[in-house]
Amino acid sequence: MDSIRKEVLDFYRSLGTKIIDKSHDQDTTDLHKCITYIWDFAPDANKSSLCILVAGALGGRYDHEMGNLNVLYCFSSLRIVLLSDDSLIYLLPRTHHHEIHIQTSVEGPHCGLIPIGAPSRSSTTTGLRWNLNNTEMRFGGLISSSNIVVGEKVTVQSDTDLLWTMSIKKL
Known about the structure:
Its EC number is 2.7.6.2. Pfam families: TPK_B1_binding, TPK_catalytic. The chain has 2 domains: 23-85, Rossmann fold, CATH 3.40.50; 86-171, Jelly Rolls. It is of the alpha+beta class. It has helices spanning 6-14, 30-41, 62-74; strands at 51-55, 79-83, 87-92, 98-101, 107-114, 120-126, 135-137, 144-148, 153-158, 162-168.
């Protein structure tokens, strides 16, 4: 709320929107504050199945994009999907064996696996044109960018958290 234009704030107030001003907290991003709010007010019974889709999370200022990626790591136990006009990104925690079911009518074929939080000593995939087989990935070395999904299911196992990114088809 520290950078909202007055006319935008007035517009939402006129609609009866509840305004929560957390601008005094400059140590977290707006997205972090939103996710915290959602988490705090979601019923306990639904928290384990919570999935949050964040539209417009990519394609703006690079520092904001990186802040949004950081939120994925801050809330790694939640399923948060960052969405832009042409791609989506979400975190694959190292604690799981992942099965990603591709909706080929709207997703793909381009994808990537990015070890942004820490190097991966061992990542293995199936369902990609260039599968990884206990492959090491790190910045300054190999990352799996510009890969291609070849089916409707991709599996991923890694010793570190990875960002999964996939292209979205224009409809």
